[in-house]
UniProtKB/TrEMBL annotation:
The lineage of its organism: Eukaryota, Metazoa, Chordata, Craniata, Vertebrata. It comes from Caloenas nicobarica. This is Box C/D snoRNA protein 1. One of its GO terms (molecular function) is zinc ion binding. Required for box C/D snoRNAs accumulation involved in snoRNA processing, snoRNA transport to the nucleolus and ribosome biogenesis. Residues 1-35 form the HIT-type domain.
């Protein structure tokens, strides 16, 4: 058993392939590794290890994708004039703010949960926003975040040692105990190949709207709050010496990786 190292292993996790001896150790392993125990249907398999079972699994996965896409296309909301008008208006307002806002079809997880709105009286967005704290395996969803709020104000209830909620503060202790200069806010660039993931660094002192200008947003912004000293695989655009910095205004988008992840969630 890879959890207690005492008993003989009886079970193997379908997702991370860890061995366990009992239900208690299975639960401990899931909690410690943040593992959901569900097999990753799109995990890479080399040609040498590819078997008939892998082929059958891929075939069934594609069938599930086809059924999901067909169900989404038949959904009555897709053909609703009101829905189309609201989405068009939202994208148009974002375009005027120099934000490339893109929406997914009905049935995709991010489309269902997105609550972003535009207030015509105040002439500003109220964003659906997701905050991810990877070092603590925590994420929080915010609704109705005004676009004129600074990122520093948005993060205060989470990582500020004084103003944060006690329960949240305890969970994000790694962040609250670190100096503010070590905290970095990143947003994934949605239009790069899967083997070349890069992130834009955002300015905490500027408003959410200013930080989103010139960027591609799929449904709503997802911000990664990281610590510079612990950041490993998250490469910031322009800070990788092997490639030059790119201009985000000239980016072309390919949504294949986003669509694959959303289809799996649907």
């Amino acid at each position: 058993c890879e959890t207690c190292s005492e008993e003989e292993a009886k079970y193997r996790c379908p997702r991370c392939m860890k061995y366990s001896c009992s239900l208690l150790c299975v639960k401990k392993h899931k909690l410690a590794q943040s593992c959901n125990g569900v097999r990753n249907k799109t995990a890479f398999v080399s040609v040498n290890e590819f078997t008939d079972l892998n082929l059958l699994s891929d075939y069934r996965f594609l069938e599930d994708v086809g059924r999901t896409a067909d169900a989404a296309a038949r959904h009555p909301t897709v053909h609703s004039p009101t829905t189309k008008k609201l989405l068009y208006c939202l994208r148009n307002k974002a375009r005027k703010c120099n934000i490339d806002l893109r929406t997914l079809p009905i049935g995709f997880t991010k489309r269902r949960e997105n609550s972003t709105t535009f207030n015509f009286m105040e002439k500003k967005f109220y964003w659906h926003l997701k905050l991810i704290f990877p070092h603590c395996h925590a994420e929080y969803t915010l609704k109705g975040v005004p676009d004129d709020r600074t990122l520093a104000d948005i993060l205060k209830p989470y990582i500020d040692p004084v103003e944060s909620d006690p329960v949240v503060c305890q969970r994000l202790r790694m962040y609250t105990m670190s100096p503010q200069s070590d905290v970095q806010i990143l947003m994934k660039i949605e239009n790069r190949k899967r083997n070349s993931v890069r992130y834009n660094e955002l300015d905490a002192s500027r408003s959410l709207l200013d930080n989103l200008k010139g960027k591609v947003i799929i449904e709503y912004p997802t911000l990664f709050v990281v610590l510079k000293t612990l950041k490993k695989d998250m490469v910031v655009l322009g800070q990788d010496t092997s490639e030059p910095a790119e201009n985000s205004d000239g980016e072309s988008s390919s949504l294949s990786s986003m669509e694959e992840g959303e289809i799996r969630d649907s």
